[in-house]
Specification:
The chain is α+β, with helices and mostly antiparallel strands. The protein has a domain at about 105-165 and about 175-190. It is about 40% helix and about 20% strand. It has 4 helices and 7 strands; from the N terminus they run ββαβββααββα. It has helices at about 55-80, 105-125, 135-155, 170-190, and strands spanning about 10-15, 30-35, 90-95, 95, 100, 155-160, 170. It has a 3-stranded antiparallel beta sheet. A hairpin with a 2-residue loop joins strand 4 and strand 5 (about 100). The longest helix has 24 residues, at about 55-80. The protein is globular. It starts with 8 loop residues before the first strand and ends in an 18-residue tail after the last helix. About 15% of the residues are buried.
Amino acid sequence: MYAARSGFTLVVASPSASRPDPVHTPSTSTTTEEVTVFPVLHHRSARPRGRPARSGPHRTAALVAVAGIAVDQATKAITASSRCGRFLCPQRNHALMLGVPAGSAVSVVAASVLGLAAFAGWVRFVRRWVTLPAWVLGLVVAGIVSNLVDRLVSGSVRDFLAGPGGSLLNIADLLLGLGVLWALALVAVHRRPTRPRRSIERPDTSGGR
């Protein structure tokens, strides 16, 4: 990167009195001074050096979210025709969460938007203790959005992973749970108060020596 200089020079004439000569009459002469009056211009980049780009974390979160949605939708499509086994059992889940009925498409979208808004507000609140990694936010967004796509397209969520206690999950549920648990763990670690160390004063046994 090169620095470009531009400007012009102004010649200023200023009178200066010379010392009187006993023979000649006193006279004045003019001296010239070169003054640069146009500021020097430097070519600067749009972003100062040493300052990270603000779009970096947002880009990382977006890439993680898109990748998570793609993987979840691909695994649902691949396992759609599989038979129920020990680990795989593709079924349709019409409930919203914890057995709550999904309702209309408007209510599903509203519930998903409220969930994202609540998580975003919580992330903003905990920034006083810790800044969550961008990929954690991407995992949460991928889990919510991917299941929302299922409900808008087919009216239900496609689950295929057999979980503990007869529960059924999908990749979107795992991404959502992993992102939320990781965020909670980071907040719990960084919010833990640190106890100041107490200095133990030992008695002076030297006897003033």
